[in-house]
């Protein structure tokens, strides 16, 4: 009696289906700053997989897949061009932020977000859950202020924006860690007005500086004049003291004595005229002496 053909096949041929089954058990990896879930034919397995490498379960007709989700902190920039009601002008600005996936909502993200090439990116989550909320809140808060208020209170405004956005994103898969307004582009008319105001302030400061310089110079001149007056006053007082001293010391006897000394000196000179001492004080003698001196001057010429 012939044995069934199946029993006559070599053993390794009988193992081929099982080898093919094992080949379907792919080796997969959850990279750092990600979490993963295994997607089966019946949906995701309940547990999440931390960063690691492992092999999926062997399969025959339907093979499991690994889906990863990025959970790292991310930086993001939102650009705005907003009509400012108080100024009736358009203003452009940026909102810079740092955010992260809220880990309490990881299961919800896997259930509601379709993966792309086996991964759910943080940008998908942000664009779906956070961007519409942030743009609405920022426009509502900024529109309350004038452009000048924004220019002078940016730090306060950034804090208000952060508080409003963080509150609005509670209960969503995205949480904001930092947020602030940046790169404000004011309307040209506002910029030009600020530039003119800055130029005026600069001119005023220059005038103040020049005034201070002139003030110092005038104070220096005043001090110099005070010193000169003090010196002149001291000289005058000194001269007065000398005059007073002379007035007290020069008597009639002293003058007579000095007159005799002068006459003795004149007597020794060849060019002399003897005049009685009593006549020295008369007008006639003075005129005669003057006339004689004029004649001598004329002869010399």
Automatic annotation (TrEMBL):
Localization per record: Membrane
Keywords attached to this entry: Coiled coil, Signal
Signal peptide: 1-22
InterPro entries named in the record: Band_7 (IPR001107), Band_7/SPFH_dom_sf (IPR036013)
Membrane topology: Single-pass membrane protein
Coiled-coil segments on the chain, per record: 190-235
Band domain sequence ranges: 83-212
Gene Ontology CC annotations of this record: membrane
Protein name: Band 7 protein
Organism expressing this protein natively: Microbulbifer agarilyticus
């Amino acid at each position: 009696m012939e044995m069934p053909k199946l029993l006559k096949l070599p053993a390794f041929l009988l193992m081929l289906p099982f080898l093919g089954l094992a080949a379907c058990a792919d080796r997969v990896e959850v990279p750092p700053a990600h979490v993963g879930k295994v997607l089966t034919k019946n949906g995701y397995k309940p547990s999440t997989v931390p960063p690691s490498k492992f092999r999926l379960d062997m399969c025959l007709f339907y093979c499991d897949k690994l889906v990863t989700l990025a959970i790292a902190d991310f930086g993001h920039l939102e650009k705005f061009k907003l009509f400012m009601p108080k100024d009736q002008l358009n203003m452009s600005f940026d909102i810079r932020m740092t955010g992260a996936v809220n880990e309490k909502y990881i299961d919800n993200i896997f259930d509601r977000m379709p993966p792309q090439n086996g991964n759910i990116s943080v940008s998908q989550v942000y664009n779906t859950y956070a961007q519409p909320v942030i743009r609405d809140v920022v426009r509502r808060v900024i529109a309350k202020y004038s452009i000048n208020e924004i220019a002078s209170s940016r730090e306060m405004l950034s804090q208000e924006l952060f508080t409003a956005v963080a509150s609005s994103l509670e209960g969503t898969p995205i949480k904001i860690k930092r947020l602030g307004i940046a790169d404000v582009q004011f309307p040209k008319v506002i910029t030009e007005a600020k530039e003119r105001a800055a130029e005026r302030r600069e001119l005023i400061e220059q005038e103040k500086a020049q005034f201070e310089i002139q003030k110092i110079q005038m104070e220096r001149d005043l001090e110099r004049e005070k010193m000169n007056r003090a010196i002149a006053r001291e000289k005058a007082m000194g001269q007065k003291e000398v005059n007073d001293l002379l007035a007290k010391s020069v008597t009639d006897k002293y003058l007579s004595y000095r007159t005799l000394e002068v006459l003795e000196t004149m007597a020794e000179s060849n060019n002399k005229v003897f005049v009685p001492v009593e006549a020295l004080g008369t007008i006639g003698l003075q005129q005669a002496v003057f006339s004689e001196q004029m004649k001598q001057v004329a002869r010399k010429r």
